[in-house]
Amino acid sequence: MSDWSLWLEATGALAGAGGVGYAKARAPRVYWSTVGLPLTWGRFAWSYRSTMDVCGLTVQPTGLRAFMTRNLARREVRPVAPKVRRIRPTSTGLRVTLRLPAGLEPVDVAVSSERLRHAFGVQSVTVAETKPGYVELRMTGYDVLRRVRLPRKARPRDLVVPVALREDGTVFERDYRKMPHGLTLGANSSGKSMYQRNLVMGLAKLPVGLVGIDCKRGVEHSRYLPRLSALATDPDMAGRLIDALVLEMSERFDLLALHGVSDLWDLPEKLRPVPLVVLVDEVAELFFVTSKKEEAARDRTVMQLVRLGQMARAVGIYLEVCGQRFGSDLGRGATALRAQLTGRVVHRVNDKQTAEMGLGDIAPEAVVSATSIRVDRPGVAVAGDTSGGWSRIRTPETTPAQAAAVCREYAHLTPDLPFLASFRPPVAIPPMPTTPPSVPQP
Ligand SMILES: Nc1ncnc2c1ncn2[C@@H]1O[C@H](COP(=O)(O)OP(=O)(O)OP(=O)(O)O)[C@@H](O)[C@H]1O
């Protein structure tokens, strides 16, 4: 086969020989940029006006405009469609900025997004308001969540970590300054650990302290040890660690009061304590008790965690909580804690109630979207915040070994925090090979 026909096959142009199917399945990004984009662009340009018309996205012209068209331009008076202001191709689709005519609002376009998706023959269309009077149609040419790759320029910065890709091809970022505390929910094998792994890989590269609470004996978090400032592996230790964090919070507030500011970020840089991200894996373990006498300790731990949730944002301590369920059935303080965790990510769940626990106070459609996540799509989740916005996301697939390697590489960024010293287990030394060393033969 010649080089030329190989290229044709790879890009899908060899339709007759099944090339399109091959390229769509194996290299959707290549297919999109070489074949899909020109086709979609052409279809869009050719059918834009009529599509808007049949989708009900036009308005009647004003009297003056109708008069001018009829009498001066001597043209037929037609309904007015949104004006296309900008068309921008991306590696995953097409972005079109529209100026809405008077009488149309962004929600009208959003309601028609499913019709537009079929009319333009694209994978998905999402509508975002960019400024008053303008919306952006974000079209994706292929299923970007099938095999997720974050764009190269998506790098962690400040306290912002790119963690996943949205359905519309944009990057989903976890911004701790905008949304200080987060909650990740999901059934077994739904992708919670993968989400946390991607988060830790990003956070590890930033000048922050990472604190792990993993009451499953540290099976998840012990991989991140070189980059952790503290790790609690059972509820008792977690209780003491949370107490230490509350004490640190009080000291940081004293520091703010001393300098007459109300936020850590208002302090001069050289006085500013390092931000801390507290990662809690399987939060239900903190609530479980096996005997009555453990209840007092459990209640104290939960209440201290609620205090962190309520106040610690101002002093740069952020919570990242993960669990399978998070309802009032867990025990006292559960709903109070959940209310503080503004950033919500819900993976596949076993029941609608769990989706409602995470997304019910965001949007009813988000709950429906979370309950329809397929079992064969681990890692897909619905991410929302309590401002009402939500989107479907998926993290890139990464291995525990990759996360451990990043934590080792950035171990030098682990801050020296004396108040956490007693919670920092010695970093594990790689195990010795089990086979005895070979003795050189004479
Ligand atoms: N974003 C993803 N892309 C591809 N595969 C994924 C993704 N997320 C998770 N998976 C697959 O799903 C499996 C389960 O994921 P993960 O361990 O993160 O689930 P979990 O919710 O933490 O489960 P558990 O609660 O049992 O610990 C992983 O082994 C991985 O192969």
TrEMBL record:
<keyword id="KW-0067">ATP-binding</keyword>
<keyword id="KW-0547">Nucleotide-binding</keyword>
<dbReference type="InterPro" id="IPR050206">
    <property type="entry name" value="FtsK/SpoIIIE/SftA"/>
</dbReference>
<feature type="binding site">
    <location>
        <begin position="186"/>
        <end position="193"/>
    </location>
    <ligand>
        <name>ATP</name>
    </ligand>
</feature>
<dbReference type="Pfam" id="PF01580">
    <property type="entry name" value="FtsK_SpoIIIE"/>
</dbReference>
<protein>
    <submittedName>
        <fullName>FtsK/SpoIIIE domain-containing protein</fullName>
    </submittedName>
</protein>
<feature type="domain" description="FtsK">
    <location>
        <begin position="167"/>
        <end position="356"/>
    </location>
</feature>
<dbReference type="InterPro" id="IPR002543">
    <property type="entry name" value="FtsK_dom"/>
</dbReference>
<dbReference type="InterPro" id="IPR027417">
    <property type="entry name" value="P-loop_NTPase"/>
</dbReference>
